[in-house]
Amino acid sequence: MKLQWIAWRLILEIRRDRRTLAMFFLVPLVVMTLIYYALQGDEKASLGLVTRGVARLWDYPISAVLAESEDLELVELSLPDEEADPVKIEAFIKDALAKGEVQGVLLMDARLLEERFGGERGDLHLYLEGSRPTATAAILSGVASAMDDLAEQLPIVVDNTCSAQCAESINNKALNLNKHYLYGDEDYRSIDYFLPAFPPLLVFFFTFIITIITFQRERARGTLARLIIAPFSFFQVILGYGLGFFAFFTLQSAIVLGYVLLLLRIPLTGWQITQLGFLTLLLMLVAMVMGLFCSFLAKNEFQAIQFIPLVILPQIFLSDMIWRVETFPVFFRLLAFSFPLTYANRAARGLVLKGEALWINWPDLLALVGFLGLFLLGMLLFVRSRQAV
User: CB under 8 Å to 339, separation ≥6 — which residues?
Assistant: First the structure.
């Protein structure tokens, strides 16, 4: 009988709390819906095809074979047809890769047939962006299949004195594929792609959780109210708590960042590590202010905990950590860019994988600073509205 009374009391308390009911029944559906629709677009690797000279005769057949691959998307490049300078062609290809127009470019130049006629294997050149192992693997697989088909179609020059047995054996060698990586190399591991996103994710995750729960506990105990009644302004109180949190979260960030750097096989300079540390601290401040803001919206610790899956889970799946934002439908692409973790992940990968200076990704840094100011302003307006009431 006592057990039934306790259970019934809990059921009635939860039923009166609309936020708790939403957390039980609505939030899981919202999160699953976001993930489902965001992943409706199949992630395909973008590949460009450049042919020059006589090799253009095989432009259509090779394109048809590449288009059959479910993992590849052929992209037309705006390289002028009359451009024949190898240096300019290579510069154009690398520029297209760096800008993200394509993730790979297959180059078939005019010397291909000359090499085949000369008894050589013949060279194809594959330029790879290289920072996404899954895209690189898809491109390599698709190009390998296309190479086999192309080798069968290339003409064979046979001398009149050559016997039938000789003709069957003349230059049926497989084509040679020369791979050129813009970032990374053949030893680049899949884990190396995900590791740069670990410090932002872990720091954001733990900073948000600890901040929202600790600050809500201070409110429940009445400590915050007593501080505000005392001769302290609201911003002095918030700044004091922020400094206290900052000391512990900075140490936490250093530990996480140091451990990830030990796991990375990509060599980093001291300046790159410093920039990565700065990015991690900036995201930590954003997470801390978000935690403080959400703690003001919660009436108790249980409601504060409810914000955790609502804030964290969508960012894990939609922040370009696992799947490319470019593959999302338009609505979810816009939603992804409303998350601070999206900008932090892009900046971290650009810094670690591409060797880009942090200032090159200044729009991402500016977005993080914007989030910081936005939540500070929201917190101020919320507290003033409560005081007015």
Answer: 314, 315, 318, 319
